[in-house]
Structures are given as C-alpha cells and as structure tokens.
C-alpha cells in the first residue's frame, strides 16, 4: 500500500513540476513586446505524438502497479487465524468473534474496540443492518463498505503493535461523525488472554470493555 | 456522411464495444446493460438522422460556400416571442409535484401540459 | 461584402423591455443571460452555505450549527453548485455563444430553449424549498444513497422535493443538449464546416452528447427511488431482493459523466481565452477535438471508480479506464502549452483566470489519477483528500474558467467592460484563497478526517489545517464580493465597448457588443477556424480546412 502511495505521489509531484513548469515558462519568456504577431503555428506532429505516447506509457505502468498492489491487498488467506464479524449500524459497530461468544458493541459516545493478534491473518466479514457505512482504519490505509445484504470479506495481517483509531467513512445520518472505533494489535499471547477474559465475562452481549 | 450520423454512430459503436469488453472482463450485468443500451439508443439517433436528413444539403458543410450563395434562403422559423414555454414549465412542474404528492393535481397538470403543447404547435404554423 | 439571409423578426406586439419581455423571450442571447445570472445567484447561495460549514469546521468540537443543519448544508451545497451553478452556467454561456460562433440567427428550437430555462429555475427552487418544509431540506448528500434516502430513514418532504427538482433539471439539460446538437449540425453559416467551428462549440457538442447519455440514468435512478419511497417498491431494499449497490451503479453511470459535463465546456472557455491572449491559433485543433470525444467516451466507462470499496465491482477494469482518461486530458494540456509557446502573451483578467485554471486543474487532475488507483482510493475515498481533489477540478477548474468566461465575454453580452484592476485583485483573492482552502485538505484526508462530518476531535494538526481552510474560504468570499462590486460599478460607469475589445478570433467578435437581435448584420467570409482573425490579417488568412 505504501508503495502505491509513494510511487503515485512522487510521480504526481514530478508531473506537476514538469507540466507546471511548461505552463509558467511561456508566461515569463514570451510576454507581449510590441505589435508584431507571433509565429502562427498550429501543429507539430512529432510533439503531439510524444505527448500522447509518454503519458500512455506512464498510465500503463501505473495500472500494472495498482493491479499488483490491489491483488496483494485483496488476497484472502485460505485459513485465517482469527475471524471477526463486523456489523455497522446507526451509529456504531459491533464486533463478534465467531466460534466464541465474544461480542463487543459500541455507542457513539464510546466506540468499540477490536483486538487482533500481531503477524497473523485476521479475516474481517463486514456488513450493515441498515444504511451504508464504511469501515475505515486510516493507519492501515484501508476502508471497505458495509452494505446491507452484502458480506465484504478482507484480511488484515498487522505488522505493528498499537491502538489504531477507526471511523465511519460513509455519511449515515446525524451521528456519523461519532461512529468511531479502535483496532488494537497485540501479541498473539496477549490476544489469547484477551479472548479468555472476554469469554469469562459470561454474558453473550456486552457493551464496550473498560 | 452527415456529422450527426458520424457522431452518433461512432458513439454507438464505442458503447457496444465497451459493453462487450466490460462483460468479458467484469461479468457484471448492470454495467453491461447500461453501456449496451446506451449504445443501442445512440444508434437509434444515428439511424434517424441518416433517414430523415437524407435529402438535406447543408450550406454549412461546404468549405467554399459563400454568404451570397445562401442569400434569400429560408433558414427556418425562428419564433421571437412566446408565452407558452413559461406556462409549459409551470405545468410540467405541477405534473411532477402532483405525481408524488397529489394525484388529482397531476392529472389536471397533465391535461394542461397537453393543451399547451398543442398551443405551441399551433403557434409555429 | 456579403450579407447573410437573416430572417427579420416581425415587430412584436409585446414590448422588448420589461419583465414580460423576459418571461416570453425566446432569444438565445436573453435565455443565455437568464441562465448565467441565475446560476451566479445560486453560486452565491451555495457559497454562503460553504461559508457556514467552514465556520463550523474552523475549530474542533464546535456546535455553531447542529448535525442536522450541517447535513442539509452539505447536501444543498453540492446539489446547488453542481446542478444549479456549474452546469447551467455552461449551458447558458453556450446558449449565448453557439449561434454567434457558428453564424446562426438563433438556436434550432427557440421556444424549447425558453422552456428549458424555466423548468431549470423551477427545479432549483423546488430543491431549495425543502429548507422551508417540516423536517428540512434533503440531508442525505448530493448523491442521496439508498437506503439512507429511502422512506424509512428519510421520510421528510425535503428528500422528495430534492428528487422532483432534479428530475426537472434533468429534463432541462436533456432538451438543451438536443437543441445544441441540432443547432450545430444544421445552422452553421456558409463555409463554417465542422472542422472550422471554435473549440468551445466542439466541447459543447461533446458535452451535449454526454448529457444525452448520462442524464437518463439519473432520471431512472431517481424515479426508482421515488417508487421505493412512495409506491412500495423495493429496488434498493436487500430484504426484498433489491440492492443498494444498484442505486450506486445507476447514480454513478450518470455521476461520472456529469463531472465531465462540468468541465468540458470550461476546457472550451480556457482554449478561447488562451488563444486570444497569446495571439496564436489553438495548437493541435484536431487533437483538441478528438481528445474531447475520447474523454467523453471514456468517461462513460469509469463510473464504478466511485464504488471501488463496495466489493461489488471489477476494480481493475475501472482503474484501467480511469487511468486512461488522463491521456486525452494530458493532450489538451500540452496543446494549451503549445498555444502559449512562442506566443505574445498579455495578462488581462481572463488570461489570469485561465492560467489559474491550468495550474489548479493540473493539481486536481494529478490527484484524480492517484485516486484512480484502487489501493490509494481505499485510503483516500470519502476523506478530505477526495474532497480536495474534486474541489480542485471543479472549484480550481470550472469556477476559475467561469470567472475567465465572465471577464472575457461580459463586454460582448452586456456591452460593458469590467474593471481590469479590480478584476486582477479578484483573481489574486480567488487564487490564494482557493489554494489556502483546499491544499491543507489533502493532508487532513491522509491523516484520517472523513468527509461529511459536522465536527471532529482535537487531534494534532486537524484544528490548524481546518482553520487555514476556513481562512482561505473567507479570502475567496472577499474575491467574490469584489467581483460583485466590480460588476455594479462597471455597469454604472458604462463606457461603450467595441465589437472586438480583446482581439478575438471567432465570429462572436464580428458583431456589435451586445449583438443585435438577429445576431449579425454582416458576416465575414469563413475560411478557417478564425474568421475574425482572418478578417483583420488577410495576409495570414489560412485557406484549406
């Protein structure tokens, strides 16, 4: 992901510098001096061909990069270590870990926290029970739609420990701005401990943990 | 071939071509239908111009035409003033509003719309 | 000297002055003026909405306005700016210019033309009347995704009024484009072959074709939404076999071409301005025409790049076509550069705005290429990065071209020249203000600020960047006020304007400012795409195509 951003950003800056420079250059060099008409040329076929072919090549290369990065990002592991079912609703999120009875639901005042293990593959199954929401963790450079009637599945393979804020990124009503959550990446041992802790709070439905 | 035909026909061909490309790469029915139907609609326009304007020889299409050649030509009927467009706009608006909120209003507005279109046709005779 | 056969209108029994003459007019010039002034009026309204939003967002955790008010503001701001300002201004400008540029006495269907204006006006008022009804105006965003816009969640009248108003706007645009196409196909003056029409008119042909292809999809989508809302339909209800994704497909099949409808006319404006103030013909006329149609065609095939994160579309197909659109757009840029190259450039206000357009649109275009890459879109979508991207292309692009068009053609339309000094000050305010408003938003988006939030937490840098954006918006507002003052003062001063105050190339500069009712008392011979230039420089007159 970072590769994609880096390449595109640098390419973008380079294009802006070059084309911007080409725009500004005539303004500095060929200002009107006197009444004589400038040369009235209309065509230059070699230049027109070059300015078509070079962008075309750049675009093809950028597409190949995008395609490869996206394929990697969207790859679904055959057997994920952890599965979390995420349900978006007005106006918070519910995380459940199938196979256990661990369920975490939030409110706009207190967003829920999802705990997942480091260096392992977590499968997220995402859906909504009402309007469209969008599940976004900026630190992971990733978001996906939560749409009623659809299940969106994707994998995370976190390589950093920490607590990462998440937000809803599809306007869903008056409390959309407060539909936040957190993803906490912990070591696999800590994750097992956390799971046990959650289960031992034996009620099936819980509000956010302390 | 007239510019109208060329424009619509090339757009129609493009629409159909991209619909086919889309189907074979994405296998998604909604987009395929949207693009394909767009292509068909454009070809309809192309055929209409082809048939209806077959006899027309436009002075604007000849690069060496002079103004003197077309002097005295009856270019068309250009109405200068008309009260019906404003009225028709109000009637169409009432028709749409009635269609959602108040069926009798819609029916009444529909009758007015037809009447006004009749007035417009009469005006251009 | 040759004289065209212009039909002399019969002396009307109704007055040429007064409100009634404007209500019953079918003169394309008057209808163009109506469209453009109405559009500018809506620009002020939507601009004030923006100022309110920026005031609310200037600092974290503010409650100057409520979440509900904010939702109505961003919905109406987007809807009004897109449907009732940027597009109608272009259609109005085209209405005024196309017959003049091709040497025709009026549009092909003058009364239809009038109808399209009035239905557009009523549609706009209908959308905005939502603010006065119980429950307020539509508040589901300018795309009004189902199920949010469905009857269960948005049961208010405001949403229905929004839908109806947009249906009226659709009717208006579709009929206008039919009028434009017919006029250009049939009413060109002798010698005005298609390859000699001005680039602005070509861009309007491409735009009209796009309108015909795109708006029906919007009308269908909105009608389906109405059926779901009031007639027990379930098009978008997954519980009954429908799909919210269907709404998005139909919406964006319209929505993406819509943004090209919003920019192609302004590519034309910028071309005319750059040619005139560089004193050179357009570089690569054929390339400009072909790229316009390439852009129009490709734009019909990219709609689901607005749906990359739905998981319901083929991202690679749409990424490929979206990236491809950069190529014809790039061709246009190089042609504009080629026009200025070795030219004789002067910096009157229209040219300044055109240059601002080039730099801003370059920026927006580059970030557009970035979000065309799905992995980037996965982070940037619906964040302030995206907000910045589209404001750069519509605000930095279309809006700047609108200013350029106003300063350039105001003398022709009204016979009044706008003050140059205040025009330049206005440009500086707009250019500085615009970039100050939107450049920080790129960073806000990357840092994680989503769009359509009425407030945000006090995270590092968020408050500062938002304050900068609000400051920029204030500067832009100052520029707009200066523009209004300029117009009023210039109209009051009213020094007469010659036929051709700028040294223009195309036919509209061959007639008086403003033109007579029948447009031309006399037409020069048309042997190239620059008949007025050829008239003034017969030794250089190009013969041939």
Percent range of helical residues of chain C? 55-70%
Q: How are strands sequenced across the largest beta sheet of chain A? A: 3-2-1-5-8
Structural class designation of chain C: mainly alpha
Query: What's the CATH topology label of the largest domain in chain A?
Result: Immunoglobulin-like
Strand content of chain A: 25-35%
The arrangement of helices and strands of chain A along the chain is HHEEEEEEEEEEH
Mean pLDDT, all residues of chain C: 94
Number of strands of chain A: 10
Q: Can you tell me the CATH class of the largest domain in chain A?
A: Mainly Beta
* Tally of alpha and pi helices of chain C: 16
Terminus-to-terminus distance of chain A = 33 Å
| CATH architecture label of the largest domain in chain A | Sandwich
What general form of chain C does the structure show? globular
Q: CATH homologous superfamily of the largest domain in chain A?
A: Cupredoxins -  blue copper proteins
> CATH fold name of one domain in chain C, please?
Cytochrome C Oxidase, Chain A
Describe what this molecule looks like in 3D:
The complex is a heterotrimer of chains A (210), B (125) and C (545). Helix content of chain A is 34%, strand content 28%. Chain A folds into two domains: 2-74, no CATH class; 82-200, Immunoglobulin-like, CATH 2.60.40.420. Chain A is α+β, with helices and mostly antiparallel strands. In chain A, strand 2 (92-97) and strand 3 form a beta hairpin. Chain B has 125 residues and is mainly alpha-helical. Chain B folds into two domains: 3-56; 84-123. In chain B, helix 1 packs antiparallel against helix 2. The mean pLDDT of chain B is 91. Chain C is mainly α. Chain C has a domain at 30-188 and 197-227 and 237-411: Cytochrome C Oxidase, Chain A. In chain C, 65% of the residues lie in helices and 0% in strands. In chain C, helix 6 (199-230) packs antiparallel against helix 7. The two termini of chain C are 22 Å apart. At the A-C interface, helix 1, helix 2, strand 7 and strand 9 of A face helix 3, helix 10, helix 11 and helix 12 of C.
């Amino acid at each position: 992901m970072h590769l994609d951003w880096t390449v595109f950003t640098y390419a973008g800056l380079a294009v802006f510098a070059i084309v911007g420079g080409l725009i500004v250059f005539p303004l500095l060099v060929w200002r009107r001096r006197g009444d004589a008409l400038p040369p009235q040329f209309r065509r230059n076929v070699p230049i027109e061909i070059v300015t078509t072919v070079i962008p075309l090549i750049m675009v093809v290369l950028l597409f190949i990069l995008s395609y490869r990065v996206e394929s990697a990002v969207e790859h679904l592991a055959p057997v994920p270590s952890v599965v979390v079912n995420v349900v978006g609703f007005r106006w918070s999120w519910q995380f459940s870990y199938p196979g256990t009875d661990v369920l975490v639901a939030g409110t706009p005042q207190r967003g829920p926290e999802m705990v997942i293990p480091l260096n392992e593959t977590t499968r997220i199954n995402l859906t909504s029970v009402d309007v469209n929401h969008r599940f976004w963790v900026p630190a992971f450079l990733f978001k996906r739609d939560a749409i009623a009637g659809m299940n969106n599945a994707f994998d995370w393979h976190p390589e950093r420990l920490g607590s990462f804020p998440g937000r809803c990124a599809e306007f869903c009503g008056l409390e959309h701005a407060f539909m936040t959550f957190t993803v906490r990446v912990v070591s696999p041992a800590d994750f097992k401990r956390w799971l046990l802790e959650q289960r031992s709070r034996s009620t099936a439905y819980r509000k956010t943990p302390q | 071939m007239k510019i109208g035909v060329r424009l619509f026909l090339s757009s129609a061909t493009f629409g159909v071509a991209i619909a086919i490309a889309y189907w074979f790469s994405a296998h998604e029915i909604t987009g395929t239908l949207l693009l394909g139907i767009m292509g068909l609609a454009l070809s309809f326009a192309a055929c209409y111009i082809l048939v209806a304007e077959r006899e027309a020889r436009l002075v604007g299409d000849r690069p060496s035409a002079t103004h003197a050649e077309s002097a005295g030509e009856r270019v068309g009927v250009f109405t200068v003033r008309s009260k019906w467009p404003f009225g028709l706009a109000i009637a169409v608006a009432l028709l749409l509003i009635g269609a959602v909120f108040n069926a009798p209003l819609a029916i009444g507005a529909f009758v007015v719309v037809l009447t006004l279109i009749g007035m417009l046709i009469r005006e251009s005779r | 000297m040759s004289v065209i056969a212009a039909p002399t209108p019969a002396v009307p029994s109704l007055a040429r002055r007064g409100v009634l003459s404007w209500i019953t007019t079918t003169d394309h010039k008057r209808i163009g003026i109506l469209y453009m002034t109405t559009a500018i009026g809506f620009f002020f309204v939507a601009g004030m909405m923006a100022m309110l939003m920026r005031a609310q967002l200037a600092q974290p955790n503010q409650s100057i306005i409520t979440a509900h008010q904010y939702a109505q503001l961003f919905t109406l701001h987007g809807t009004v700016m897109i449907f009732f300002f940027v597009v109608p201004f272009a259609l109005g400008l085209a209405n005024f210019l196309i017959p003049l540029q091709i040497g025709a006495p009026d549009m092909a269907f003058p009364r239809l033309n009038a109808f399209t204006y009035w239905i557009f006006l009523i549609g706009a008022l209908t959308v905005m009347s939502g603010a006065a009804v119980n429950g307020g105006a539509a508040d589901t965003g300018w795309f009004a995704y189902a199920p949010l816009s469905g009857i269960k969640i948005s049961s208010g009248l405001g949403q229905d009024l929004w839908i109806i108003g947009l249906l009226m706007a659709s009717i208006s645009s579709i009929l206008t484009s039919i009028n434009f196409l017919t006029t250009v196909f049939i009413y060109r003056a002798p010698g005005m072959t298609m390859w000699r029409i001005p680039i602005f008119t070509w861009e309007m042909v491409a735009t009209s074709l796009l309108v015909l292809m795109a708006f029906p999809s919007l009308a269908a989508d909105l009608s389906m939404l109405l059926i779901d809302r009031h007639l027990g339909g379930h098009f978008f209800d997954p519980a009954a076999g429908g799909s919210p994704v269907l709404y998005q497909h139909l919406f964006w099949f319209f929505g993406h071409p819509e943004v090209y409808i919003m920019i192609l006319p302004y590519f034309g404006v910028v071309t005319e301005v750059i040619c005139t103030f560089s004193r050179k013909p357009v570089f690569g006329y054929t390339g400009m025409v072909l790229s316009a149609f390439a852009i129009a065609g490709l734009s019909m095939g990219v709609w689901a790049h607005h749906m990359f994160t739905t998981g319901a579309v083929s991202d690679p197909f749409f990424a490929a076509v979206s990236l491809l659109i950069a190529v014809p757009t790039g061709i246009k840029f190089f042609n504009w550069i080629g026009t200025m190259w070795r030219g004789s450039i002067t910096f009157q206000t229209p040219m300044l705005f055109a240059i601002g357009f080039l730099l801003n649109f370059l920026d927006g275009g580059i970030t557009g290429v970035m979000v065309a890459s799905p992995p980037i879109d996965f982070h940037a979508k619906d964040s302030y990065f995206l907000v910045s991207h589209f404001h750069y292309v519509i605000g930095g692009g279309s809006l700047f071209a609108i200013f350029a068009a106003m300063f350039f053609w105001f003398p022709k339309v009204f016979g009044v020249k706008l003050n140059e000094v205040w025009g330049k000050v206005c440009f500086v305010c707009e250019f500085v203000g615009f970039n100050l408003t939107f450049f920080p938003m790129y960073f806000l988006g990357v840092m994680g600020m989503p769009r359509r939030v009425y407030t945000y937490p006090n995270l590092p840098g968020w408050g500062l960047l938002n304050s900068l954006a609000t400051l920029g918006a204030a500067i832009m507002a100052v520029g707009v006020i200066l523009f209004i003052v300029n117009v009023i003062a210039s109209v009051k001063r009213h020094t007469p304007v010659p036929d051709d105050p700028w040294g223009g190339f195309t036919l509209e500069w061959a007639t008086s400012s403003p033109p007579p009712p029948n447009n031309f008392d006399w037409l020069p011979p048309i042997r190239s795409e620059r008949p007025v230039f050829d008239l003034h420089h017969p030794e250089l007159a190009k013969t041939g195509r």
